[in-house]
Amino acid sequence: MAQIKPLSGRNLEVRRKNGAAWDLVCVASTKRLQKTNEFDDASVIDCDNPQAVPVRRSVKKMTAWTINISGTTGGSQMITLDADCDSETPITYRFVKVASLADGGGHWEGDVWFENLEFSTEENGIVKFTGQLRGEGPLDWTPVTP
User: What is the pLDDT of residues 41-65, one digit of tens each?
Assistant: First the structure.
């Protein structure tokens, strides 16, 4: 029986474009990429058997995606995240799967807007952050180069 090889969470990275470089958002310890499809539906009657219960037929009308990140942060990272949140133009981010080509390595890349960004601390503890990044346009997949 073939068994899957689990992928460590350390092998998922979020990176932001900084000129020609890709900076690791190293403060993001929790990362989530969510892809969503939206459909228009219709109840369709079987013309050969009009007494049968109609069935649903769907047409895909839109795709959307979001990235959620959270973790602990320091001062300089707060400034970068805050600037991205305040940006008047989308910022390019990557969601990277660090693995070989045989193991499905590569990255998703697309432009994002910050829908929200929250900094918090409890009882003078470590500063934490949470951000939801809204995809703008397509989310492209690029396999790792062998």
Answer: 999 999 999 999 999 999 999 999 9
Which three-class secondary structure state does DSSP give residue 125?
A: coil
Q: How many domains does one find in the chain?
A: 1
* Residues 6+ away with beta carbon under 8 Å from 35: 63, 64, 65, 139
C-alpha distances in angstroms, 133 versus 90, 105, 114? Answer: 10, 22, 4
Residue range 5-43, pLDDT digits in tens: 888 888 899 999 999 999 988 888 999 999 999 999 999
Q: Tell if the pTM clears 0.90, that is, is over it.
A: no
- Residue 119, domain CATH: 2.40.30
82: left (phi over 0), alpha (psi -120 to 50) or beta: alpha
Q: Does residue 114 belong to any structural domain of this protein?
A: yes
Residue 2 CA neighbour count, 13 Å, CB half = 2
Quickly tell me which residue has 């979020």 as its tokens: 14
